[in-house]
Amino acid sequence: MTSYILAIDQGTSSSRAIIFDKQLNIVSLGQKEFPSYYPQPSWVEQNADEIFASVVSVVSESLAKARLSGKDIKAIAITNQRETTIVWDKNTGNPVYFALVWQSRQTADLCEIKRKKGFEPLFKRKTGLVLDPYFSASKIRFILDHVENGQQRAEAGELCFGTVDTWLTYKLTKGKTFKTDVSNASRTLLMNIATCEWDEELCRAWNIPMNMLPEIVDTSTLIGEVDPSYFGASIPIAALVGDQQAALFGQLCLNPGDVKNTYGTGCFLLMNTGSEKIQSKHGLLSTVAWRFKGKTVYALEGSVFIAGSAIQWLRDGLGLIRHSEDSCQICNEVKESHGVIIVPAFVGLGAPYWNSNVQGAMFGLTRGTTDQHIVRATVESIAYQCSDVITAMGKDAHQTIKKLKVDGGASRNDFLMQFQADILNTDVVRPMISETTALGAAMLAGLAIGIYKDTSDLSKVWKASFAFKPTMKEEVRVAKLQRWQMAVQAAMAFKTDNHEI
Ligand code: ADP
C-alpha cells in the first residue's frame, strides 16, 4: 500500500493542498484564493476564519481529486506565509481581530518608538532580525491595543497568539494542540535565536504576556492529530515550517553553503549556515531553517522586493509585453540591452541596501533604445539584484557560492536563469518539481513518521530538471557588474523630498 503525505501550503494570496506519494510525485492538488483587506494604504489584513475555511476546502478538494480518503494519508505537513499574526479567544477559538499580514505596515510607528528608545541592537542581537513592522511582535501589540481590554484579557490567560501554522494546528486539532515550530517562531522578534526559546526581555519590551505564546517545538516531529470530524481520520500533523525554510529543505539545501532562490513577486534567497548562527555584517537576516531531533540548522536570508513584479510592470504599467512568459523571447530577440540598465527600486531597495528612499531609475538611453532593450534590462535587473544578495551571503559566510538552486514563477524564464548563471559565474539548477515549498514540508513530515529513514533517502528521489552553466567571459561579467553598481549608486544619489513633482 502506498503511503501518502498531504502538504498544506498556506500562502499570502491562496491556500493549496498537495498530496505526494512515497516517491514524492504529486498525486493531486487543490487550490483556493482568499481575500486580503486593505482598510488603509499600506495596511494588509485577512480573516483568520477565511484562511482556515480555505484550507479545509483545498484539503477536501485534493483528497477528492486523488480519490483518497483521510485514512490514506499518513501525515499532514503545514507550511505557511510567515510572520502573519493572529490572536484568538482561548475559550471560543474565535479570532479577536483580523489577521495582520506580514506585508502590513500599520505598526511602523510602534517600531519607530522602540527604535528611538534604543531597542534596535537588543532585537538584532537576540533574534537575528531587524526592528521592523514585518515581524509579528509589533502586530501582537497592535491587536492587544485595539481589542477591548486586550492587555487585561491577555494577562488573564484568555487570549492566544499564533502565526498561521499555530492557528491551523489549533483549529485542525479542535484546540488540543497549541504549538509553533522554531522556523516560524524565529520570525516573531520574540524568540531568542540562540536558545530557540521565547525571550522574557523581548516580550517585556513589547509588554506581551508570555502565557499567550504557543509552545515551540521541532519543525519535524509529531505535533498533534487532526480531529477526525474534518477528513474522516485522525491524521498526524508531522511538520510545521515557514514557507521559505520549507523551500530551502525542498531544494535539498541541507549542507552549509547551499543556497536557494525563489523568484516570485519578489525574490527570497536563503543560505544554509549549518549549526552556525551568523550575525550579518552585510544587511542580511539570521533565521532558523529547521530543527529536527533537537538539532537546529540556521540560515541567512536576504530578500529582493521587486522581481517578478517588475515583469508585471512591463505588462500592466508599460504595456510592453502581453504575458509574463513573453519576456523570455523578447530578451532573446536582441543581443544586448544596448547599454540600458534599470534599477527597479519601486518600493526602495531591500537586502543588502535597505534603502526605503531610493526610487526606480533607467540609465543608458540612446536614440537606438527600443522596447526590447527595456524589457531585457528589466529582466536582467532581477539577476543583478540577486547577485548583490549572493555576494553579501558569500562575504558573511566567508565562502563562494558554487551552485544556486532556483524555483518560483519567474524561474521558468530560461533567459533570466542563463543570465543569472553568467552574472554569478555559478551553476543555476532548476528542479523537476517546481512545488518546492510543499515538497520540503512533505519531506519533513515523512522524516518525522519514518517514511524516510534519513535525508539520503530524499536525495534519491530529488531530480534536477535543468542546469544553466555560466558562459560569459570574465571581463564582460565584471564590466557589467560595475555598470550595475554605478547605476544603483546613481539611483540612490537622486534624492528628492517631493516624489510627485
Ligand atoms: P508569488 O508566489 O510571489 O505570487 P509566483 O512564484 O507565482 O509568485 O510567480 C509569479 C511572478 O513571476 C509574477 O510576478 C510574474 O510576473 C513572474 N513570472 C511568471 N512567469 C514568468 C516568466 N516566464 N518570466 C518572467 N517572470 C515571470
Walk me through this protein's architecture.
This protein is of the alpha+beta class and 501 residues long. It has 17 helices and 23 strands. It has helices at 48-65, 108-116, 120-127, 136-146, 150-155, 164-172, 182-185, 200-206, 228-231, 243-250, 308-317, 326-333, 371-397, 414-424, 436-448, 455-461, 474-493, and strands at residues 4-10, 14-20, 26-33, 45-46, 73-80, 86-89, 99-100, 159-162, 179-181, 191-192, 197-198, 215-217, 220-225, 236-242, 259-263, 267-274, 285-292, 295-304, 341-343, 361-363, 403-407, 427-431, 464-468. It has a seven-stranded mixed β-sheet. The protein has a six-stranded mixed β-sheet with strand order 3-2-1-5-14-13, with helices on both faces. It starts with a strand and ends in an 8-residue tail after the last helix. Adenosine-5'-diphosphate binds next to helix 11 and helix 12. Adenosine-5'-diphosphate is lined by residues 264-265, 308-309, 311-312, 324-325, 327-328, 408-410, 412-413.
Question: Helical percent range?
Answer: 25-40%
Bound small molecules, deduplicated: adenosine-5'-diphosphate
Q: What percent of residues are in strands?
A: 15-25%
Poorly predicted runs of 5 or more residues? none
Question: What is the arithmetic mean of pLDDT?
Answer: 94
Give the overall form: globular
| Biggest sheet details | 7 strands, mixed
Helix tally equals: 17
